[in-house]
Design brief:
It contains 7 helices and 14 strands. It has helices spanning 21-28, 48-58, 78-83, 95-105, 107-116, 126-129, 167-176; strands spanning 4-8, 36-40, 64-67, 87-90, 120-124, 132-137, 145-148, 153-158, 183-186, 190-195, 198-204, 211-217, 220-226, 228-230.
Length: 232
């Protein structure tokens, strides 16, 4: 059973409503003709507008969309609800709040089980950071800080690498000072595709968008662009 995660630095329906390339890529990783895709908008506080935009986007595609709200749960049996889906798509927002709520509801444990049983995990921004051991977040309200996350994937993650000017220097500083582990960054419009915890491909919805590996070597921070395939 393949364990697959697709971590987007930015993009998808919420940032590129007229550019469905990343969303179609995620759907295409499922073996199902009409995959069941479940949006998890916890990081946004289950914002109604965000949920509406998800349905507006995904009802155009060959899939069966649904969403999982922790503020208005669809059922008491969250595990059965999640296990019925093929793809879990986690939205952006406040990563720290997302982690707290998931742990309170036991959703972190359910999602790990789903991932181990071949359900595709995907997400953007907070929905990218959450899968790694650590991430660079603005969840605390002022500036960027490292944050311990779920650890499905080894290392750290930084989204919006080109989209927010403070992201790249902050991530490199954190890696250089050992405040955060080495890991991967992704521009807005770029996504990292991991299978069985190994990066197998980087893809993008914009020609210029890239993914990167960032690490320390000989007391210097190194950054290397990962070959990124434009989906257009």
């Amino acid at each position: 059973m393949l364990r697959q995660i697709i971590a987007m630095g930015g993009g998808g329906f919420s940032m590129e409503p007229e550019n469905p390339l990343l969303d179609l890529y995620i759907l295409g990783q499922s073996e199902k003709q009409t995959p069941k895709v479940c949006f998890v908008p916890t990081a946004s506080g289950d914002a109604d507008n965000y949920i509406t935009r998800f349905y507006t986007a995904f009802e155009r595609h060959e899939c069966t969309p649904s969403h999982l709200s922790l503020f208005s749960p669809p059922t008491r049996d969250l595990e059965s609800y999640v296990m019925d889906k093929d793809i879990i798509y986690v939205g952006g927002g406040n990563t720290k709040n997302l982690l707290a709520l998931w742990k309170e509801w036991g959703l972190d444990i359910i999602l790990r089980k789903a991932w181990q049983q071949g359900k595709i995990m995907a997400g953007v921004s907070a929905g990218s950071i959450c899968w790694f051991e650590e991430g660079v977040t603005d969840s605390f309200g002022s500036g960027l800080e490292p944050l311990k996350t779920l650890g499905f994937l080894k290392g750290s993650n930084c989204p919006h690498y080109d989209g927010e000017k403070e992201r790249r220097p902050a991530y490199q500083s954190f890696v250089g000072s050992a405040r955060i582990k080495a890991g991967y960054a992704a521009d807005d419009g770029a996504a990292l595709n991991f299978i069985d915890e190994q990066l197998v491909k980087a893809v993008s919805s914009r020609q210029e968008a890239k993914a990167y590996r960032v690490w320390m070597e000989e007391q210097k921070v190194k950054e290397e662009a990962v070959k990124t395939i434009y989906l257009g």
